[in-house]
Design brief:
mainly alpha, two-stranded antiparallel sheet
Length: about 170
């Protein structure tokens, strides 16, 4: 009987206490900084052995690099490290993309009046006498088929009233 098993990955608990940097995390970060392929729980013993050589290409590996590498290259220590990893189903990329496409973006519009109440003295606002708030300002049509009209008049609804701000 041939059963199909879903692909799984091993993940570390983010709150896992470890006396130093977690060996996989430390070496993955160092290798990424060196432009080399990272290693992880799915890496073979040969890939782990080659890690130190990849680090040597960028200079002398540190003592922390060596400790992390030693912890992963010795089978008994690596099995202890791997024991603390959770086996979880690997995410299906197409399902994730479909799920993300159906989500509404999380947009929170704060109550600006509660954030900063700034009283406005409307009698102190200096407006030129020639200003006509009902005047429509048209911009020249752009090149091409689209014509854009820009209306710079105040909107018909006062936004302060919409926000519930007493401005009189």
């Amino acid at each position: 009987m041939n059963e199909v098993h879903p692909k799984t990955v091993l993940m570390k608990d983010a709150r896992l206490p470890w006396p130093t940097d977690f060996p996989y995390d430390h070496l993955a970060a160092r290798l990424a900084g060196a432009g080399a392929a990272a290693i992880g729980p799915e890496s073979t013993a040969a890939e782990v052995m080659a890690t130190l050589f990849a680090l040597q290409e960028t200079g002398t590996p540190t003592a922390v690099d060596r400790d992390a590498w030693d912890a992963l290259r010795h089978i008994d220590q690596r099995l202890t490290i791997d024991f603390y990893l959770y086996e979880v189903p690997a995410p299906d990329v197409t399902t994730l993309i479909d799920d993300l496409g159906c989500q509404e973006p999380p947009v929170v519009v704060p109550d600006f009046h509660r954030l900063a109440v700034v009283p406005v003295d409307w009698t102190a606002v200096d407006v030129p006498e020639a200003f006509d708030p009902n005047q429509r300002v048209d911009t020249p049509a752009p090149a091409g088929d689209a014509a854009i009209s820009l209306d710079l008049r105040p909107s018909s609804g006062d936004w302060l009233d919409l926000l519930g701000v007493d401005h009189e």
